[in-house]
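Step 1: inspect the first sequence and its tokens.
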Amino acid sequence: MFNDNEKDIDIIATYSDASGTIRTSTVKMKDLSASWVLENPTNGDLHKLKGLQVLKLKDSYQTSKISEENVVDDHQLQEGENQNHQRASWSPVKFKRQELRQKRRDLRTAELVRQDKGADKEMQATAAIENLKNMDTVVKGKYSIWRRDFENPNSDSTLKLMRDQIIMAKAYANIAKSKNQIVLYNSLLEHVRENLRAIGEANSDAELHPSSLDHAKAMGHALSMAKDKLYDCHTVARKLRAMLLSTEDNVGSLKKRSAFLIQLAAKTVPKPLHCLPLQLAADYFVYGYQNKKDLNEEKLEDPSLYHYAIFSDNVLATSVVVNSTVLHANEPEKHVFHIVTDKLNFAAMRMWFILNAPEKATVQVENIDDFKWLNSSYCSVLRQLESARIKEYYFKANHPSSLSVGSDHLKYRNPKYLSMLNHLRFYLPEVYPKLNKILFLDDDIVVQKNLTPLWDIDLQGMVNGAVETCKESFHRFDKYLNFTNPKIVENFNPNACGWAFGMNMFDLKEWRKRNITAIYHRWQDMNEDRTLWKLGTLPPGLITFYNLTYPLDRKWHVLGLGYDPALNQTEIENAAVIHYNGNYKPWLDLAVSKYKSYWSKYVKFDNYYLQLCNISE
């Protein structure tokens, strides 16, 4: 602060007004309020200021900052001098109030602008509605229901439009007939026929006839006329609902028929595959191969070697399993394949592997009928398979038609369930009494990597090593077993994870120790009336090896190539074993084409018998 006797200082103050413009004014040092302070003080010695000096002052109440872009010329300063002189006496508080007023004005202006834009939009919407009310739908030349993609030239909008038009035309035709408007009824039916002919077998716009768009326009005109004459919301809705119910019934019937035909195609042996075992069996006896003894018999019971079990009646499929396994084996001479087939295919199977023995590996072919211990007095499932009730289930003529039941019931009527070959997997210790470990392989798999590391996996006291198939809620025990039955509820967890047959490492020593076959027999006896599970081998397998299955890494066994066309390609190529479980086997025309090459590359299509039976890629 300064004393009255001290000489005052004239100060030219530069500041920014409420509008942001820089102003200047002359004030006395003593007139400044206490809120103004020196930004670069001179230790309070004002006498040291000589001549014209620049002091930077800072207002602690002022919130706006001076910007170089707001500097104005001398002419502008002179014009605002009177106003500035008036404002020079304002206190900083008054400047603050002025600034707040300006902010309120700005907010109010912005609000008015928003309201104005909202009013404009409302007016535009009202105008659009009025235009729609006045639009003549008859002359528009098209009738698009629900779909805006009609205008997109890159979509299949024309085809979709024509199909929608057909649906609406049928609905209006029924209404026209009920109201005795025969001319309109006949006109709509004629347009329906023309559109159906134009569509034909097309699945996209590119496949449509060039005149299809003209048909769509003509149908649109006819529908517009029908709408003007017949449209009643309640009537149209009722008619469409009736059409929907009728279509749903037709779809259900077609699904059942499709399921039956797929099952029939999957289980019917193609002529070339039927020819192959016949030709092999004929030559087997003609050339006296029935007297030929197996080679390397000493290896068949050597527990130090790698043993595989394959139970199949399909010669070609079994050859692919053996060929693909040997090709990827590091030491083929240590691999022994135990193949068991039925009496009908024994000669053909043995003939094939006599003529096409894999390099260095050992192959043994046996006939299941030679296992005299496997009889109905010992084997409960064999006794059941021979029962009249099971045969009636499969073959009774007046049994509910396959076309009248769903696909879930159809699959249980698969003839393979009548084959003891399918159940022989539960008797591995009896079939191979001197072996300690054996790898079980289905005939619809392909081996892509060396499998010998499987013998080094510690199963930790478990009997079965398998890849689990459960994902979230899928393929758990409640999918395979009847949990309404108290026997199932008391013994098993419905959320227990399922696993797959197809590639299983069995510890036969542990199997014998735990008497697993007896467990299997006990549950099979309890399921004679099929109330615990339907026919098949996986449900009794899940029960028999419950809490006795060691989960293998999923890379060992990838499933689904026989039914799922959307599998991950990388997973397939990285898998040690790929499994064509399902109806679309790789040797059938039903096979998923992109998966077929994984199997066919192990088939020797230049083989004499394959060429004789016209088996080609």
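Step 2: inspect the second sequence and its tokens, then contrast the two.
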Amino acid sequence: MNLQLNSLIDSLWHSRKLGEAVKLALSHVSEPHHYSVYSKILQLCTGLKSIKYGKLIHRHIITDGFPCNTCLNTRLIIFYSKFGEMESARKVFDRMSERTVVAWTALLSGYSQNAEYHEALRVFSAMHAEGMKANQFTYGSVLRACTHLSSLESGKQIQSCVHKGRFVNNLFVQSALIDLHSKCGNMEDACSVFESMETRDLVSWNTMIGGYAAQGLNDNAILVFLRMLREGMLPDSFTFGGLLRAIVGSDGLAKVNTIHGYILQFSLGSHEFLSGSLIDAYVKCGSMYNANCVYNTRQNKDLVSCTALIKGYASEGTNITRALHLFKDLQRNMAIDGMLLCSMINICAKIASLSLGRQLHANSLKFQNQLDVAVGNALIDMYSKSGVIQDAKRVFDEMEVKNVISWTSLINGYGKNGYGREALTLYVKMENEGLKPNDVTFLSLLFACSHNGLTREGLQCFNDMVQRHEILPRVEHYYCLVDHLARGGRLEEAYDLVCKIEADSDASVLGAMLGACSTYENVNMGRNVGRRLLFGVETENPANYVALSSIYAGAGLWRNAMEMRMLMKKNTISKYPRYSLCQLTS
């Protein structure tokens, strides 16, 4: 009978018929030789992601008074860990009279896989204190925890334990060490581990390439890839995925084209994960044409690749119609997520399409009970840029969780819609709630004060930024401050600041100064600033010629004004045509 039960369970286990296996096991009284039966069923529950049947088996074991051995308890720890129920896994572990290295590793791995990294480190410390020697899987899991915590110091301590034991040359452990050092920015030690390896597998090569990619060192990543090919190791999709993540900017387009060629050479062109990575890489390099070509060759259009393409159109600001068509196609075929909604809302903000923005807002509420922080921030920005600041405020108030970007977006919205006082009030409220403003927050505040005549308050904000929050001003802050002082009629102070910060090389700061000289008809200062711009920093911007010409004309210096116009014509410079968008409703 016992052999028959084991045989039947084995058959059902191989056929993956979980329900029948559980019913059969529960119909028999628990006996000592049933360890393997329960272990196999728990393994099947884990594989088929059935927490219900797994808990039923555990309950049956307890109520029958079945004495669990070490192997069965370890299987229960693994089962509960896979479903994120670490409290239950810990209870099983704590009740064990005897613990093997496998049981310790199962618990530690569970914490690590469920992002409870500090707890994983505590388990390793307790294991070490009890004199239990770790195996390669223990080291791999605890090093993964250190990597996620960016705790290089803890990782180095564990590395010293590795060097004292017999796993110093284990590929699994060495790859985990490379990952730790590279993700923590310590590429020198990552290289040292890599070079010390007697043999290298594909995982170790990919980890090294991924490490360089994480640090933005794309040339180094490509060199490791080429060395890998020379040493006869064939790449896989993860190799190319790591390489593509490392490349951004227009100067990276040639590299992406080269990697694309290698992908086709190794017959990985139809790989969906790689197609998505290629689209994303081309978008980041500013080549929407190539991104579109890759997208059109895909048989199955997925959410990731479509989102990458729409994000590209959103950041590029052109071909908005194509992005809208893509979004409509996507809506018909699959569920949309927060990232895609953010990209579409950003497009609405760029083209000030309030009606479409409101539809997307309704869409986001339909799919989520509460606004996702990123979606909420995008909506605040969209409503602000569309001039509906009350709706931006309503979205802000309805957000349960807000971050610095949420507060800064609304402050920026208030400033650009003429509500300078409200922007300052929100800044005070933000500080009272314990949020630390960043450099962008102060940029928005300076803009709000500058464009709403709040000269004294703007200077106070600048002082708060430098002295109280110890934020180093960027050129953009100085531009706002110069503009701020100049708009307030304090031209001498503004000009002194320009000289003090040596802003001769920055056209935006000098441009703001020249615009103020035109407003207040200060000919001498306008002449000095204009010469710096026209004959040094920005010789081809027509706005500077027009502004200086207007200053001369306003002072009755018609000859000087005509000279500016002639100089502009001589240099074949003309004003850029502007355009407006108009949304028609039927």
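Step 3: confirm your contrast with the notes below.
The chain has a mean pLDDT of 83. The two ends are 80 Å apart (CA to CA).
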